[in-house]
Description:
The chain has eleven helices and no strands. It is mainly α and about 200 residues long. The protein folds into two domains: about 100 residues, RNA polymerase sigma factor, region 2, helix turn helix motif (Rna Polymerase Sigma Factor, Chain: A, Orthogonal Bundle), CATH 1.10.1740.10; about 80 residues, Arc Repressor Mutant, subunit A (Orthogonal Bundle).
Amino acid sequence: MTEVERIADRTDEELAREARAGSRRSFEELAGRYRRRLFAYLRPRLASDEDAEDMVQDTFLKIYRNIEAYDPAFRFSTWLYTSANRLAIDAFRKGAGRVRVALERDFDVPDPAAGPESRLGETGLWDAARALGGDRYRVLWLRYGEDMTIDEIAAVLGRTKLAVRVLLHRARTSLVGRLGPALDRAIGPLPGTARQAVGE
């Protein structure tokens, strides 16, 4: 087994620990795993693809410089998305022109989780989720795109667990309203919609 194969088999947390110990190759593997996914998360907040790519780079630069602060007791993805979220908020507060105020629908971000066999791509699920805008898209992405827990999402977004649950419920309800039967045919009823009890 080659070194590249061994690195590819490691978990995110193992790679982050190795990067913390000085392994640049482990950090590059993490960046490769998350670059596209982080772009999909940040793009709806920003004015252009270029701005989103810049924010992705800024995020990786920030975590690379602060990798010693990573706590291996927690998921790497939670730390990464928290950093990205804070950078986007800081850019907005500073009045940076690259952070959008009004949502535009003139961009096409492919679903990074969708392969040719994906049923989600057929329904336009992520396009519909992006159309919800703001926190509703972000909470759906973190929950279903990144498989984060309610606690992890609360940490990333800086909200209470109850606020995240309410936001997630509203986002799923809105999504079902937009996609209706097409969504049910593709993936079945979402938990927390009118068809099932609320809760995680």
